[in-house]
Amino acid sequence: MNVSALMLRARLLAMRLGPAVCIALALLLAGALALAWSLKARQLARLPLPPAPPQLVQAAPPPSANENLAHFYATLGEKRHAEQQVKQLFDIAAKTGLALDQGDYKFSMDKASGVAAYQVTLPVKGAYQNIWQFSLQALGAIPFAALDDIAFRRETITEPVVEARVRFTLYLKEQP
User: Fold this and answer.
1) pLDDT at residue 131, as a whole number
2) d(CA 128, CA 18)
3) What integer pLDDT is reported at residue 1 of this predicted model?
4) 31: phi > 0 → left, psi -120 to 50 → alpha, else beta; which?
5) Which residues of the chain, if any, have pLDDT below 50?
6) Among residues 173, 68, 69, which one has the least CA distance to residue 117?
7) Which run of H or of E encompasses 122?
8) CA 40 to chain CA centroid, nearest Å
9) What pLDDT does residue 170 have?
10) Residue 27 and residue 9: Cα distance in Å, rounded?
């Protein structure tokens, strides 16, 4: 039998039974479905619950002021190696293809903290991208350096070579 023949038989049966009996049968079917659903829900409610999640891990307490200060001093470079750090700046400039002339150097000491600041001002010539590469690589290679100032100058807009003045400050401590 095909579907259309079944539908025809169902319509004829519904006409013979009348609307009241059809509504009663529909309500009876809906009640049976609701009962089946509630029985399934009760079975699921009787199942054991999954285990509780493990306790949350407590975060480590923040470092104390003394620990922060000790970490700060441990990060500083050593004053006796300042010339090596300047040489490292010149090496990074050469690797990035920059022409580096003689720089200006200024040393200052903060007696209260015991931290020395060694300012290195370097005039460089090269492509704009190379100057930025040099600056970023220098900061990555020397963790106690800070890029204080960078100034660009170009004679004409079409000129590919840019002149820049880059100023780093190396923060140094006395020997450990």
Assistant:
1) 92
2) 90
3) 66
4) alpha
5) none
6) 173
7) strand 115-126
8) 47
9) 94
10) 21
